[in-house]
């Protein structure tokens, strides 16, 4: 297998990871829509009082407390889920190991990778080596392939981290929604049994 073939195979892996990142973005958008629906329900505005007399709609104080607890639980779960959904979280051990291996390999200053595509940029000494080896061919393709392989590794680790955060956010938001449904059910039953 030639160096150019290795590069092209790695480029395909890079494209796959980019497509997966776009899929994750779509999943995040679906949960965003769900958050807007939950917020739009107005369940957080359940009134414990009848309009003018300021008389409790639900006479039993235990039921009122249960509804309050369910609504607070739902609110907490939804807020924590939204936080996990919209933040990137700490870098995974895999990402930190890749950064450490780059430091050891290059002997350069520690490098904080914000984006996988940053690894594709050539340093001045690499650009010189690329120009010199363009005539030779294989060395230039191997240098490109190596940089691309590192980028694929970083993007794959970042995608895994984001995927895990989206999954956990989905669980939290779903549990929050169930707590809201339970609060509405208890409220409805509590109103009917005065």
Describe the secondary structure blueprint for this structure:
Layout: H1 3-40, H2 61-86, H3 93-106, H4 124-133, H5 138-192
Describe this structure in words.
With 194 residues, this protein is an all-alpha fold. Helices cover 74% and strands 0% of the residues. The protein has five helices and no strands. It has helices spanning 3-40, 61-86, 93-106, 124-133, 138-192. Helix 1 packs parallel to helix 5. The longest helix is centred in the C-terminal third of the chain and has 55 residues, at 138-192. It starts with a helix and ends with a helix. The mean pLDDT is 78.
Number of helices: 5
Instruction: Note the run of SSEs as H and E.
Output: HHHHH
Helix content: over 70%
Q: How much of the sequence is in beta strands?
A: under 5%
Q: Give the overall average pLDDT.
A: 78
Counted beta strands: 0
The major beta sheet can be summarized as: none
Shape: rod-shaped
